[in-house]
Amino acid sequence: MKTFTKLMAATALSAVAATAASAGGHAQKWDMPMAYSATNFHSENGVAFADCVREGTGGAIDITVHASGSLFKGADIKRAIQTGQVPIGERLLSGHQNENAIFGFDSVPFLATSYDASAELFAAAKPTLEGILADQNLTLLYSVPWPPQGLYFKKEVNSVAEMEGIKFRSYNNATSRLAELTGMQPVTIEAAEISQAFATGVAESMVSSGATGYDRKVWESLTHFYEVDAWLPYNHVMVNSDVWGGLDADTQGAMMACADTAAAAGLEASIAYTEFTLNGLREGGMTVGPAGDQLVDDLKEVGATMTSEWLEAAGDDGAAIVDAFKASMN
Ligand code: PCA
User: Where is the secretion signal located (predicted)?
Assistant: First the structure.
């Protein structure tokens, strides 16, 4: 069975579990940092998750979402949850590949380039990912993919040679490496700050989804979006494992039911947001379309280098994930 179907089945069950959950204990107020704009589908889904948890736990867990990196910047959210500064939060784990290469399973170029493939890749990686997170005092609640990643520029680009020297905004290890291998100059900038970076010329290019370009109105500075479909990176909502362990079974069950619903709803929203935001970029005046053959060929070469580098860094666990993924696609 395809993972998407499994997620939908889980959603149906979750409604039952949520109704069965009882209140009990004192109400806990939880702050939930998220890094992306309040109107982004991940953030809206986070608010729906918080509403579901409030209802499902009879008010016992009252989560307030803080979007746009307003409480913690994206890069600091994982540590904040681990150390108990906040009980819960959302983070793009591929930004932490320097801790463990497995965190970058979703940013290997051209490994999984569609929603279906990405769901299979995530399913293959999930047990290993959960094990690594458990060792870091983190419990995974739900994960949602960003739309496929493409390239933004402020000029027409038809080959990697034409990317030489461009100032490139990166958001994780893979995007920085992509910049290096294409002769660009990477500078790491959080999504919440990219409008400013493009407006002031600190950055002139990035790889990201149509969603982030749309959220940040990048047509004010950039002109071209090439649909490369390089990968679909995941945001992960995680809870501090000590906090999680302190909840009674009913509360945990209600929260997991909401998490399953959020995973399915987030995926649907991501799919729907893809076309909507690409149209939004067009309406903003950008040229949006597939990359040309030369650019695709050049990027495939860069992708092959990055894939072998990732496989080497991720060792047996990484190879097992890729093997399981490939077997699931047959
Ligand atoms: N948007 C996020 C990560 C991936 C994406 O599509 C960003 O650009 O920071």
Answer: 1-23
